[in-house]
Amino acid sequence: LLAARDDEILRLAGRSLTSPLTLLVGEVGVGKTSLVAAGVIPWLREHGYDGVYARCLNDPTHALLEAARLRLGQPESEGGGIEDLSEAVRQLAQQANPPVILVLDQCQELFTRLGSRTRQEFARDLAGLLSLPGEPVHAILVIQREFFVNLVELLPALPTLYNEVVELRRLSAEQAHTVIRRALGRFRLRFDELVKTHLVDDLSSEEGVLPVELQICCDTLQAQIEEDEYHLGYEVYRRIGPAQRMLEGLVDSRLRSLRWRRHALAKSVLVNCVTAQRTKALITAEECAVDTGTDLETIQELLDELITLGLLRTSRIGTRDFYELRHEYLARRLEPWITDVEGEAKDVDDLLHRELNNYERFQLLLDREKLRLIHQYRRRLSFTPEELELVIRSAAHERFEMDYWFARVNELSLSQQMVMSVDLLYSPEPDLREALRAMISRLDHKAVLPTLLDSLREADVAVRETAIEILREIDQNLVRALEKGDVATQQQAAYALGQIGARHALQPLVETAQHAPEEVREQAVEALAEIDRTRSAELLIRSLRTGSQVSRWNAAMALGRLGRDQAIRARIKREAERSDASSSLRFAYGRACLEGRQFQEAEAVLRDLERRAVPDEERGRIERTWEDLKRLQRQHERGLFTWPMYRGSPGGSACTPQTMNVPLELKWEFETGDCVYSSPAVAAGTVFIGSTDQRLYALDTESGAQRWAYDAGDELRSSPCLVDGRIFFASADGRVHALEQDSGKAVWTKRLGDRIESSSIRGDGPRLFVGTTDGSVLAFSPDNGRVLWRAALAGRVDASPASDGKLVAVGTSDADLSLFSADGGELLWRWQVDGGLRGSPALTQDEIVVGSASGAVQVLDTAGNLVWTAFLGSPINSSPAVAHGRIYIGASSGEIACLDRVTGRRIWTFEAEGEVSASPTVAGDSVFVGSHAGQLYALNADSGELRWHYRTGYSIHSTPAVADGRLFVALRYYNICAFGEPVEVEDVRR
After folding, report:
1. Stretch 303-322: mean pLDDT
2. 24 to each of 159, 161, 163, 165, 191, how far by Cα in Å?
3. For residue 447, pLDDT beyond 60
4. Judging by DSSP bridges, how do beta strands 735-740 and 726-730 pair with one another?
5. Which strands form 746-751's sheet, in the order they lie side by side?
6. Is there a contact between 556 and 585 (Cβ–Cβ < 8 Å)?
7. How confident is the model at residue 237 (pLDDT cuts 50, 70, 90)?
8. N or C: which terminal CB in the chain sees fewer CB atoms within 10 Å?
9. Dist CA 710 CA 697 (whole Å)
């Protein structure tokens, strides 16, 4: 058949040499295998290149490795050879011109034989080979046309998969004539021209002549030529033809030589060799015996006869012999039999499709009778991952053939395994919890661990809690992995132990923090901080007294990392101030000061260490700490560690240069005693939040641990303000409280108005500002609460004043926006606003930005002139954020809009789920905002594209605060949450 394929061979060989990955696609019987195995690979070797040919089968990567070893003269049976495919192709590339061409044939078996996990593993293996330096290897994947679309599943690992596709078409009539002439000429045989003409005409269709059909007919005709003759005349063709008759009788004519009683058995065996997708199936003699109800000896004899008749052939996989159809084309010719013999199997397949729909819509599982049918025909059914998941879930529920079906759980994707584990673990039925334990025992914990860790970052609380429960089931495995695993596994184990709070793992984690590679040490310290900071600090302090020099300094670094906690920092300081304190202990204190943002103290400790006798090999740590100190000081000067008040600043622009790389994960959650409407303020490693339970809370930004709480005597709905080491906030009864920021000790308390509900204190100089519900705005001294001036407005003040130090802008919920001088409270002008102001104004760069209840966004200059007006589609209850020359604001319909600051032109719109009364915050190039539906969004500040979202489960009314690498947001239902960038844990699946 290759006689007419010279152009196709040259084209495919050329493509494979220039393109890292080429697909060869064609229908069954078009000659794909012949083209690559007998055409392309010999051509490559003749021209100084090398090619490796393998069939997919059960393990495509291993099949390619075995074929490469054979090319290197290292048969697998001899052992001791190359075990890595990348090394094998490197050696082959040194023996020939690169690249080496790997040819993987019959890639439809990726989908008819292999599970999703194996397919993805192969795709990653292939992607790794194709990315080797110098491109020593290229690949050709050969696949049936019907399965071409299935390859889309491999695109995440192989994004260029569809870039180079070669379709092998049928032969033209001219090519078919050439094939007949050249093929017969090799045996000095000849067909009459009339035979060739009729044969080609009979086989021709609009697409051409199918090569396998041409070959079958030629073989059939050639068998009619007597041994001493070399010519076949047209009368023979008339007798046994036409071509379609020869093809239709292909199987029956060969089975005629069998004894009659074996005809039906032979048909059953052949049908067993066809999958439900009409492709070849590999079966063993034992499977044939079970499926046909025949003894093994009889089946073995029949299989040998079918091989002799040219209908079957053997393939050896590992140590076992498998049988399959000699050609995929035969599966199509057996289709009429499948309709009769496999009718029930087809019915079961259709039943499974219907039941899957029921499960997806109504969560209905299969009953025992349906499971029995599916189990009976399991070898004839090709399950999708979703179908297999349904069967396994149902088998667990019915406790049906669990040994068999649970053994197939590793064919599911890891996410499917995780979700199934969640469902079974939370089942109220003890039998199902027992079934889960049986299933987990069959899973490779190293493989499922990444999915469990990913699930800890899910928004669904039940999923997170279930993941933790499962991890606790295997906590001893995690400790062993921490002690004996590779770097990636150690990282994952440390992270998991931290998340489940495994106190028994504290000592192993301390030892890991002393002796493991740096990336593992860092993860171990994170875990120690999660489990028990105080106990971990004590263990690390002890470890500073023993061990090698390197381990002691590693322990000092770990101890310093825990120093963000004030109490632990004080404990380290006491140890470091002892007369016999070692340099490593002093270093730990210096790192602790750095973590606690006590920069002056850290600098003093580092200077002291420079004067001490520190080992030369450890001085690098001190130099790196100096670098860290300077970097953090620069960040402190840019305001990256603080969010001192509502909307982040006195002017209320609600922006920070700090970038938060999404996705974020929930770091901690703190529950107050009642609803939370206020927004958090952050400084010096502490986040402050008020609650309607009448208390102001000070929480550690890193852990969420409560540092202190202050009882204000009435509800706290407005937000706190941090100025010069003090925290100022208003309670609903009209009192303003001033506390020491570090201790929560009261400095003064003054009643300044009738009631102060949602208006937050703002300012940063010798005067602070607040509004009251009786329609006043006032300035007071932060030193003692003395009122400096008070001005009456036309309506109730629920919004917060905005100030730039010289001017103060404040709006009322009724109708107007007023501007005052900051010094004396002189009214400069008043602007009538349609519908009133529920959100606070932003005062920045001599302009005032407001959003009104009428849906209008307006910008005025400080002289009171309207610059522009733009309209959203619904009332605006949120406050604007101003950054990047743009204005970001939300509306009650869920609309979040970005407007050009100069012109008011709408740049983008995002539709959130639920009302947006919370105000947006801009952090770097992301906009963070929450909704009443409990969704927390991160949007691209330039385009409005959704980057990340997290369903909290409770409505969000507060402005997110971004500081010190954390995103803080309060939930109406009692809680404040802290989000941060996920800890980078190496994925062992790579």
Report:
1. 86
2. 17, 11, 12, 6, 33
3. no
4. antiparallel
5. 721-723, 726-730, 735-740, 746-751
6. yes
7. confident
8. C
9. 7
Distance CA 760, CA 650 (A): 10
Nearby residues of 587 by Cβ (< 8 Å), 6 or more positions away? 553, 556, 557, 560, 605, 609, 614, 618, 621, 622, 625
Residue type, 406: F
Rounded to an integer, what distance in angstroms lies between the CA atom of residue 641 and that of residue 317? 62
Q: Which amino acid is at 806?
A: K
Unique residue bearing structure tokens 């292939």: 126
What's at 135, amino acid-wise?
E
Determine which of 377-391, 518-532, 613-627, 707-721 has the lowest per-residue pLDDT on average: 377-391
pLDDT of residue 357 exceeding 90: no
Determine the pLDDT at residue 161: 94
Q: Is the pLDDT of residue 184 over 70?
A: yes
DSSP 235-265: HHHHHH--HHHHHHTHHHHHHTTS-THHHHH
Asked whether the predicted pLDDT for residue 990 surpasses 50, the reply is no
| Residue 798 CB partners (closer than 8 Å, separation 6+) | 757, 758, 759, 771, 773, 813, 838
User: Residue 540's closest CA among 566, 568, 567, 518?
Assistant: 568
Token pair for 697: 């809370």
H or E element, residue 769: strand 768-771
128 to each of 61, 90, 157, how far by Cα in Å? 12, 13, 9
Q: CB-based contacts of 327: which residues, under 8 Å, 6+ apart?
A: 29, 212
Q: Strands, E, within 872-965: which ranges?
A: 881-883, 886-890, 895-900, 906-911, 921-923, 926-930, 935-940, 946-951, 961-963
Neighbour order of strands in the sheet with 827-832 = 802-803, 807-811, 816-821, 827-832
Instruction: Give tens-digit pLDDT for 553-590.
Output: 999 999 999 988 888 999 999 999 998 889 999 999 99
Rounded Cα–Cα distance for residues 891 and 581 (Å) = 60
| C-beta pairs of 421-426 under 8 Å, 24+ apart in sequence | 421/466, 421/470, 422/455, 422/462, 422/463, 422/466, 422/467, 423/393, 424/396, 425/466, 425/469, 425/470, 426/462, 426/466
720 to 422, 648, 723: CA distances (angstroms):
41, 11, 10
**Lowest-confidence pick of 143-157, 312-326, 436-450, 780-794:** 436-450
Q: Which DSSP category does 168 fall into?
A: P
CA angle 122, 124, 128 (to 5 degrees): 115
What is the structure's pLDDT at 989?
35
Question: How many Cα atoms sit within 13 Å of 885 on the Cβ side?
Answer: 6
> Which is higher by pLDDT, 54 or 219?
54
Residue 599: CB atoms within 10 Å: 15
Exposure of 194 in the CB half-sphere (CA atoms within 13 A):
8
Q: What is the pTM of this model?
A: 0.58
Digit-coded pLDDT (tens) for 888-904: 999 999 999 999 999 99
- Coil, helix or strand at residue 643: strand
Q: How many whole angstroms separate alpha carbon 685 and alpha carbon 798? A: 30
Here the tokens at position 519 are 């990336």
- On whether the CB atoms of residues 915 and 893 are closer than 8 A, the answer is yes
* Residues 34, 898: Cα–Cα separation, whole Å: 60
* pLDDT surpasses 70 at 121: yes
Helix or strand holding residue 491 (H, E): helix 487-499
Strand partners, 980: 665
Q: Which of 546, 559, 614 is nearest to 590 (CA)?
A: 559
Could you tell me if 798 and 838 are in contact, meaning their C-beta atoms sit under 8 angstroms apart?
yes
**Strand, helix or coil at 556?**
helix
- The mean-pLDDT minimum among 263-267, 353-357, 677-681, 740-744 falls in 353-357
In our burial notation (b when 16+ CB lie closer than 10 A, e otherwise), range 398-425 reads bebbbeebbebbbbbbbebbbbbbbbbb
